[in-house]
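Notebook entry, structure prediction.
Reason for the run: the old model in the group folder had no record of what sequence produced it. Starting over properly, with the input documented here first.
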Amino acid sequence: MYLNFGLESDELEKRMGGGLYQGQIITVMGGVGDGKTLFSIRLAYGLVKNGNTIAYISSQFPIREFISESETLGYPLFDSIMSDRVTYLTSVFVLMRARKPNIEEILLNRKIVEKNVVILDSLQEGMFKDFEPVQFYSSLRKFSEGRIVMVTLNPSDFDEQTLLKIHQLSTTVISLNSKDMLGERKHIIDLIKFPMARHSFQQTIPYRIEPGRGLIVEISSVS
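New structure, fully documented this time:
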């Protein structure tokens, strides 16, 4: 089964093969400023607009800043949070306790279990007790049965061996890149490992960011 995330305002779903397969782990890699949170919010908004429910675990923003960020991008999620179509959990709130939880404790949270998409933005080794990537992704693999689990991370936070394990254990791997060219910021979505596409897809997707409109996919000759 595939979950739709298409919006009339962009062609992202079409360029990514027409939906996301339910029952997979997606790892999104990108450095600081490469758009991990933008990409996560865009997918969350599109998934909710197409009738899905989301658990969004953030190590980046308290809830007020997250709501403000989503509105600034043109993907307002306040109503979805209030109606519980989106459950927003911050690492500061959820993990603030005498000891760090392991991933299994988080995945047993009722608010997370009842959703069909879980987004973790972004993974940091210090978030969980006894973090070990193989065990972490093994737990996510079991949990992803009937769900989509998406994890964003900054590859510079992990060593090469850990990144290799993460790549092997992920169903899908997406890389986000950006660079300045002629005074303009260029952004790229690179579908590095993308075996579960419903239809043909564009491996390298260029886009720009516009306030109030969010992610705008640009015309490209790449196919």
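Summary: The mean pLDDT is 91.
The old model has been moved to the deprecated folder.
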